[in-house]
Records
---
Amino acid sequence: MIVLENITKTYQTHRGPVDALVDLDLSIPEGQFVVIRGPSGSGKTTLLLTLAGMQHPTSGKLLIAGKNIYNLSNRLRANFRAQNIGFVFQMFHLVPYLSVVDNVALAGPAAGNNHDITKARNLLEKLGLAERIFHKPAQLSAGEKQRTAIARALYNNPKIILADEPTGNLDPENASAVLDHLAQFHRRGGTVIIVTHGLIADQYADRIINLRQGRLENPPA
């Protein structure tokens, strides 16, 4: 499903170049639940954004389903991402002036699909948010916001869900609920890749990858 070959990402800063990822080789088969772990500054988020097609590597190749996505134009890469990848942000990134159901349905047009309120509503009901669909994000708890973000990520029936610290702002009960929903997607055959610095997601993982200073601490499987 996902192959990274010699991926390097170097940021130019006022203090000089900083390597966030260094010659990274990694293969992730379809249907794996992968946890990427490491301390702050280890390159976890850079790696996730690279996998999502949002962060062009300085060098190297990323293949998703055999397609080199950074050889695509910005428009085609955005379309590919919208159709194949659901992204769950730590800070939710919900549109504050839209209702919960509209926040979820908004994902449709980005992938060339309809703005389907019924579909969005059904997803929210499955995630336990039936009574919140017409609320605005400011009226939700942190756990409810994250479940809304998961519903949005699922809207286009992606093959892959990428999640950046999806439990970082949640208490243990809500964190477990969010991971349970991601595990359900995984059991249906989806590929899940979670970035975290904690241990709570380990029990769900088929595989744990440790990063330090942009390099793998454990060899690729």
---
Amino acid sequence: MNEPLRFEPELDFGAQSGDGIERAGFRLQRFEVFNWGTFHQRVWRMEPGGDSVLLTGDIGSGKSTLVDALTTLLVPAQKVSYNKAAGAEARERTLRTYVLGHYKSERGDTGMAARAVPLRDQNSYSVLLGVFHNEGYDQTVTLAQVFWLKDPRGQPERFYVVADSALGINEHFAGFGADIGQLKKRLRALPGVTLFDSFPPYGAEFRRRFGIATEQAMDLFHQTVSMKSVGNLTDFVREHMLEAFPVEARIDALIAHFDDLHRAHQAVLKAKAQIERLQPLVADCDRHAELVRETDHLRGCREALRPWFAQLKGELLERRLVLWHAELERLANRLERLREQQKQQRRQRDELTRAMYDNGGHRVGAIKAEMAQLEAQRQEKAERARQYGEVAIALGVTGAADVDVFDANRRAIETGQAASLAARDDGSNRLTEAGVTLRELRLLHGDITGELDSLRQRRSNIPRQMLALRDTLCAALGLAPDALPFIGELVQVRQEEQEWEGAAERLLHNFALSLLVPEAHYADVATWVDATHLGARLVYYRVRQNVQAEPRNLHPRSLAHKLQVRDDSPFYAWLEAELARRFDYACCDSMEQFRREKLAVTRNGQIKAGGERHEKDDRNALGDRSRYVLGWSNAAKIAALAKQERDLAARVQAIASQISALKSDVADHDKVFKLWQQLAFYTNFAELDWQPLTGAIDRLQRELDDLAASSDVLRTLQAQFDALGIALQESDDVLHQTTRAHASQEEKLRTTQQQRAECAIPSTPRRKKRAPSTSPRWLPCRATST
């Protein structure tokens, strides 16, 4: 190192006031450096004491080093230009050279390039510290930065310190060992000390304490602290001391303000025009209000008619009630007379019954009772026989004419039930099978219909399930479907090679259903596919940019020659190379040639690969265009699917008709089974044999006729009894009719009384003149017919 530098504290440019110097604001009291540049191994201290100082010394004595240290303490690293005060070129010194203490360059014996020689290694650390004091407020602020090396070949690490008290390197930044973390822990424990890991919060913190409003002041400090000359004072002041005036923002604000005024003026003009146009509407509104008032007046007049009509109706109902009361009284008197007459007729009947009993009538009564009992039994058995006959006719067997036929029918029940049950079960099985077939055909028909609808909306032959999967992928990534084409959308069989179309479709089917993914979208597509459950099989190829395929010598009859790639596709080169590499199959017209080739395919779709493996997949017809996926025209596929749709529709209709017939057959067999069950309900022929009861009734009738012929008195009494029975029946009928009329008259009277109550007819006669009352005299009455 050269001769040490000197500073002269006597030089001061502050203003004199009285007997002393006024030193307003924060001034540098003490500045310390440790291991900074050539200031090595101990703390170097400069104490201006708040005064202005002049640094002097020989070249290389360290003036610029101290200036750079002070600049590093106050200015962001990206703005610092080291050794600028000495007029050095850019990048001559760096923060790394200062921390390691580079002081010379030397060249080795081998004659290699010069190498900088440092005073320190990567195990040392450096400290810059400045103490600032404000005498007016008696405040002290310490700023410090600590540097160390993590990577011997990298830039130094650092942290920043702001303290509200005076700190010193020897007292507070030494004796912590080799761990910088211990130094940080010690400093954080001190009162009023704040540590920062980056310059922006550190710079904001000390500018806040110093009262520096903007960063521009620090930029001015950086420009002046090491300034050697000023070429143009005006440019220097404009660039470093004045803030930029936002001219464009002010112009935009003026334009926006003018636009607001213009829109406000247009709004006023529009409002005036609207008011002028609304004047006729205001007049119409006034006319409408007048009509509404007139309508309300007329409606009030109409409503006033209701009480008046209620009064008239009440008077009419009052007169009707008088008539209904008279009619009800007349019917009550007639009922009383008819009941008395009926009592007399019943007494006469009882007397005639006793007289007939005294003259042999007890036997007649017994015979009649027995005949009535037998007649009831006969009718019951006859009804059962009739029901049995209907069931037997429905089953095609003979009715129960005698016990032998009945027993034969009983023996046939079990066989008939078993046969009908078997037929019903067989029909049910066939119905179930037909239903399953119909459901499968309808599902297939729905798939074909959906595929047709999809095909008619596009030109591609790719199945709609694969297109839906691509649409989901593109929607998730925000891409257009054209950005990720299927190979089948870009490749087709040449028109002159249509005889090989079926074999090409079979060989390229899976390859044609693969997606092409450009390099720009590859990462997003791979991530989405990996994170998503697709529910289907997806193959995609990563197509790199500017990848040149090696030229290949194709077979003269190669299948690749028969394929055409869309020439406007950005994947044209990749597809041509891939088709040549994967599908260089010889198209063989004969089996002799097929056996000779290593890779070969026939028109019938037999494939030979590797010279050993042969494959022919005839699960689907070779010419089934509904499965084709190549090409950019789908007219042929639409036609094939349309024919399949029509055929399936006809099959569905036939199966539906068959199901309808099977349902009818099952219902018929079930009906026959239930008829056999009904026939089995009759277990005894005696329940159906009603003919013997008819003979017994005839014998009793003859006996009754004989008794009546043998006694004239009994015959006379019987005639009187029969006549009295007729008269009693007539009296019952008249009494019933009169009772109904009496009940109807009571209902009319109640209805009329209710209507009168609704009309609120007063009990006193209506006066011609009456004082006004707060309550209405008549209540509204429902419009009912009188």
---
Amino acid sequence: MLDPLTLVRGLHFAATLLASGTVSFIGLIALHAGGAKMPTDVIVLRGRLTVVIWLALAVAVLSGAAWLVLLASDILGASIADVCLHGGAWPILVDTRFGVVWCVRFALAALLALLVLVPATQSVQIAVAAAFVALPALVGHAGATPGMTGNIHLGSDMMHLLAAATWLGGLPAFVLVLWQARRTGSTPWKNFAVQATHRFSVLGILSVGILLASGLTNSWYLLSGPRDLVTSDYGRLVGLKIGLFAAMVAIASVNRFYLTPRLPEPAALRALQRNGFTEIGLGLIVLMFVGMLGTLPPAAHVHTAPADVPPEAAFVHIHASQAMAEVTIDPGRAGMTDVAIRVLREDFSRFPAKEVRLTLEPPTSGSRRIEQSAIEQSDGSWRVNGIILVEPGIWTVRVIVSPDKGDAIPLDAPIVIER
């Protein structure tokens, strides 16, 4: 049985791509496909596509809210009912990058819902839709990658989302155009469908190229090698996603090189519509895999808690390009506690540091943050004993590592402190 978070993530990405892709289809395809011979009732098509955008935005907002609640429930270890009734999602909303991105995207969704009522703002609509679909990359695996490498990975992930929205998100609107042409059977609508098909085909080829390039880039950062495609859960899902993508490209190739030249024959219109539905179905499966991938650690970054971490402790692994830190707060609850820090290289060998400072930011602004220097132990770890955590919640742990040579290395991450 699929995890609810996986289902919610998949639904959210599907709705996001549909809203953005439909806006792109109107601005880049529909408004330019008919030329001077635009069907007189094309306004009906635009009205239907506007309704599709509104419905997709509504689903995206609702599924985004459900994603927030499920994430808060998972982080806090509380039931969904407790999170909803006692405001447990509020710290996630205001104190995490996920919450900030969620708020910005909610505002973009509201703005886009209003802009589609004003046809003259088509360029602005496309820009807002692009931001709406690209911002989730900030809270994915790419957004957690530090340094210049992280910037490249983040840019690649954003391009991946934009290309997916343009192609997969635009497919329902394209199928609707084909359906309208078949239903009316009029010459203006058939000509409109032919022009729309040619334009969407060119856009699809460009999108597939971007998807392929960005997909390879993302795999470079998230997989340690080709064998991960068969030896890890994350890699196997990536492999299945690649297989479905290849099937979609094969169908698109049949559409481009075999069916499109036969337009506007009724049989070609019918086959294109059928293939469009097939691509949409395969795309939905791909998006469900995307929902699952977001809940799994990448094969190249799997870091499990050490076996010696006590069950009642709070543990976090912090990864940066220069060093890593493993922070254990024992016990992981409010009150007096001890903190152990291990500073490591990428290969998990001990990182040589001359000083390690610990900062703990409380979940509320009314409490004072804790700052102390850690004391190096004989086994190479660092400790801060006898600190008092005044309240439970999502704290921010920050470790400042001063190496023997070079600048200090900051590492920070959220950590949950129980009651």
---
Amino acid sequence: MASEVAYMLGVVAAGFAVNFGLRALPFVFFGGKGRELPKSVERLGAFVSPVIIACLVVYSYASLEWRTAAPYVAGGVTIVLELWKKNPLLAIIAGTLVYMALLRA
């Protein structure tokens, strides 16, 4: 029993260390007064986020079958709100609410 608890604590500690280290890495490399962020990193930052979102959308819709239009309508609402209001939180919440409402209907 004690070895299982020690193993679980070790897994949690390792996960914490890796997560903390990866999140701290940019501050170590690019932090400090008077240090500019390299242009290549700025371009990469502007490019990676939309690519990740596109991958998530493709993955989410890949296994759907055309039984109901609810996922597509909710996705359309989310996209329109994001492009119109430029507020991801509003778009995600509204898309989720539309999807849940259409499932109940």
